[in-house]
Amino acid sequence: MRVHILDDWFDTLRSLPSFAKLAGHDVTVWNDHTEDAPTLAVRLAQAEALVLFRERTPITADLLARLPGLRLISQRSVYPHVDVAACTAHKVLLCSNMHADGHSVAAAELTWALILATARQLTQQNAAIKVGNWQMGVGQTLRGRTLGLYGYGRIARAVAGYARAFGMDVVWWASDAGRTRAIAAGETVASSRSDFFASADFVSLHVRLKPETKGLITAQDLAQMKPTASFINTSRAQLVQPGALLAALNAGRPGRAGIDVFEVEPLTAPDDPLVHHPHVTATPHIGYVTEDELDMQFSDIYDQINAYAAGAPSHMINPSVWPNG
Fold this sequence. Notes:
The chain is an alpha/beta fold. 32% of the residues lie in helices and 14% in strands. It folds into two domains: 2-101 and 291-321, NAD(P)-binding Rossmann-like Domain (Rossmann fold, 3-Layer(aba) Sandwich), CATH 3.40.50.720; 105-282, NAD(P)-binding Rossmann-like Domain (Rossmann fold).
């Protein structure tokens, strides 16, 4: 098949062991980023299979209408960036492994890195020493403090394990179903949503972005946090009401934030107020960007392409497109 891969910004995929799974296919890898439909239509005119690099490029009805030769989109995890109805209308099969059997170790590790960074003011201390200032403030010890985890999922449970290894107390909040699962597992669930935000020294968000979770974290939630607390988000920026985090930080509740996700991505504005806020440690959505994680994820994606080529597609999101769906 003629396979095109979008948004491999650092030309990483060719160097990973999983790339060998595409042997026998005609593969084109694009190393830059564009969301312009006419430009993408020219680039992908010969594509039969399209590989998406997470949610970097939206797949719209307009773009799909310009790609009559496209037969398959192969990706991994959630797909809010893909117009599934338009895929079906244009007879394009979307395959996406939802990885029910594991979690993103890389995302869990980055979450913990941001917790440590906010606790010890790592980016601010680093910036201070680079301009000749010796120490710029006093950090926090994690042992004995409370980590609040919002969302009872696999990544959050991995982060809870790290927290306990550091001697922290862990408290949970989640959907009704999530809280029920947490209680059944013997976990400590806050007595109320307000108590969850008010009592935690760190709140880390681990929820999938869906229409019903958009704007899940409100200005009122953030205002209930301690001025000494930190808010961590390695999930999705859209889970927080637009502008609420910046306003909360300016108001001093919470006192700090560690952020890996933004309302607009890629974020290239050099003067973004959230990125440059003195109490924010920001990273450019690198939660899953490790060689190990990408090799694992794209191995699944390539398996889907090979399954399709062999006449037995896997992980079909819109199976009605397939002749035997």
